[in-house]
């Protein structure tokens, strides 16, 4: 479930509440030059806007803050710093009356990298955030954008050395595969060379990302090729969020245990609403499988909306974040549609239509849509309930297995079809995993503040 509150702020608050805020909500600063695609990315991921509709978006004139919650335990805040607010070294910053101002920070004695823009103190923004997502329009001349990125990094290095930079080389949908790689290499080199000049060497920096070792003082920077017209933007944003979730390592370990104990190939934990994968096992992500998992979520949501029933009168007991009491009842004598709806299959009501041979267009590999028959006890709008699960068999002998973790999270596993013959083991292991995940999120809030802040 996404809660979005969009706030326009004209100045940055004092740092008084910084510690509390960073504990409560990891802070992502989303920035990049004008028209690079910042608003589009947020709209497509968090409000389900169709990518084609983003061309009608107006330019964002102010700093905006959007707060998101996936359930009650994964909260984060995205601050969008608009592109028309240019980033200046402090001595060049023009006031509204056209004069120049170079003195408003602790760091004014260094006149090279104190950044102030449009009335916003860039250093304060950088100090307060946990990650910078910087968008570069790959279809444009990006040299100015890279210079601006370098200035931001330069500033961030001083005020918040542990800050993570995630560079989205965006709008790559129009580029050939070779052009994508070449663009990424070029941008990477430009950043690397800039900081080689500053730091006097590049030897410790690998090609695709550098500073991945958190114990070194090197830059924590990653590059992602993204587009709102495919799943790449979801995957890249998932990586950003994963690094901000303090429980991520535990989740990864749990998923590793699951796949080894259940003879699976890969496991993803998805936020249902956004299709952000908040955790995966430690094997490299298979992009094609990731896309199929996203399609599986879409399929179930769509089918539930079509075949689900009105749940206004469902009595639902939840503990904190949607831990659902299995004894909820669907029986509603007043519901006129009851007789037509039949029993409930796969998190959706089975109607008179059979979809045992259902196939859907976005995933040509799908040959059948099998399911375990289970009772739904959750409002359709919430899509999944504590018993929901689904299996999609793919061509080539693989299958996808989906299981609800809570109202907001779904586990999707990739496995060989043969592994499904031991379904009882899978279900037992998945239930253990589910319990562990819920415990993890219940136990950690009191103890995780330091890891969130870092
Ligand atoms: N081809 C392509 N176009 C995109 C993509 N993402 C965004 N766009 C387009 O880029 C244009 C600018 O997008 P915005 O989201 O308004 O950019 P912005 O960075 O928020 O712009 P400002 O608010 O002015 O800073 C729109 O026409 C979008 O449709 C993408 O992945 N591919």
UniProtKB/TrEMBL annotation:
Molecular-function annotations in GO: GTP binding; GTPase activity
* UniProt-recorded name of the protein: GTP-binding protein
Source domain of life: Eukaryota
Q: Which residues form a coiled coil?
A: none
* InterPro entries given in the database record: Gtr1_RagA, P-loop_NTPase
GO terms classed as biological process: cellular response to starvation; negative regulation of autophagy; positive regulation of TORC1 signaling
Q: Which GO terms describe its cellular component?
A: Gtr1-Gtr2 GTPase complex; lysosome; nucleus
In terms of Pfam families, this protein maps to: Gtr1_RagA
Write down the species. Rotaria sordida
Question: To which protein family does this belong?
Answer: Belongs to the GTR/RAG GTP-binding protein family.
Keywords recorded for this protein, A-Z: GTP-binding, Nucleotide-binding
